[in-house]
Amino acid sequence: MIFTVTPLYALPLAAIYLILWFRVSAVRGATGISFGDGGNAELLQRVRQHGNFAEWTSIILILMILAEGMQAPAIYLHVSGALLLIGRIAHPFGLLPNNAAHPLRYVGNGTNILSLLNVMVCLAANIFLR
To answer: What is the pLDDT of residues 33-56, one digit of tens each?
Structure first.
């Protein structure tokens, strides 16, 4: 089986993952904080931006690759992939310590939930309606 849709989203998401990781590492290097956040608010923010990315992206990409492996219609995969990519671009800019209601945080979380629900429905349809 050749996967053609999921990799289109996995590649830019991997690039974002690395950017977020470099941002964490830069603060760690500048502050000498090896693990945890050491009470540094900027490091905590960057760790959570990176961690939130890893938490959402991993499960959705796994479900997308499973759906693609089951030959789910590409449109469902593109919808989930596009929503995930939009959300993962927006979310770090909205995850701010002084504004829990930042609009980009809502965009990030909302698109992630929609992406996950879409791919879950796609998988369920392929499992139970085949």
So the answer is: 998 999 999 999 999 999 999 999
pTM of the predicted structure, to 2 decimals: 0.93
Written as one letter, the residue type at 55 is E
User: What residues does 99 pair with on adjacent strands?
Assistant: 96
Spatial neighbors of 9 by CB under 8 A, at least 6 apart, are: 61, 64, 81, 82, 84, 85
Q: CATH second-level architecture of 6-31+39-128?
A: Up-down Bundle (1.20)
Q: CB 15: neighbour CB atoms within 10 A? A: 10
Tokens representing 119 are 């791919």
Quick one: tokens of 63?
């479900």
Closest CA to 61 of 88, 80, 37, 75: 80
